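anyone seen this seq b4? input:
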Amino acid sequence: MNDPIDRNDPYETTEQHVERLLGRALNSFDLPDALVERLRTALAHASALHASHHSAALHRATYRHTYLLADGASLTLWELVHHRGADGRDHHELYADKAEVRLAAARLSEAFGFPDAVGLADPLDDDLDADLELLSALLTRPPAPAPRMYVPDDSADHARRVLRRAENADRPGDAVAARLRGAFAHHIQQVFGRQCSVAGKDAGFSLYEHAFLLLDGSEMSVWEVEHTATPDGRHMCEVYEDERTARTAMELRARVR
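predicted toks r here
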């Protein structure tokens, strides 16, 4: 979802959204460097109005921006947008903590003649906090995997071809190849796909699980990363023994600047 207070581009990427959010905030330099670095790994975002106040003297709104990061975690930023009734120009402030943005909003209201605003509970807190928990869960929880349907179709040869096209130096070795020679059925599933900008160029990332059923009745998977984050934009395949290592490799590729 795009930022509800600025719909200039309905196709705005999360990377562009983050840059715009940081660029317009008057206090973005107050955010911890570590938080900004994590924010730049965001894969997706959602924005929602959290609370608002409008009067002749003051217009004030608080927005919640939630991000899904490359490591699977979520991160929330709180944006305070305000202007006096006379000047009509929006001023933006960013906070990493909900308590800080509530205090800033309360102080702003107090300055414009609403002394009871400090300490007042947000009337939308309960519903929107529950909504935030649900949103964070949706962002961080992977979709339920489709049931595996193993197909006996030259699976040992398929495994050999997957390993052979891997270009990464830390690809599975001889022990994995030897086990996969006993594969008699396999299942392929895409578990991740994304387009992004790497070093100023468009690049695509896909992650596939190749699951194999072996002759001894056991199961085994290898994880294939396909991407175009190469100097000349060519397609490249990398294969890893576990999903965590494959996702880490994608993140490192995506961070190249």
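Residues 115-132, 134-141 have pLDDT under 50 and may be disordered. Helices lie at 14-24, 33-39, 98-111, 125-140, 155-164, 174-180, 243-254. kinda curious what u guys think
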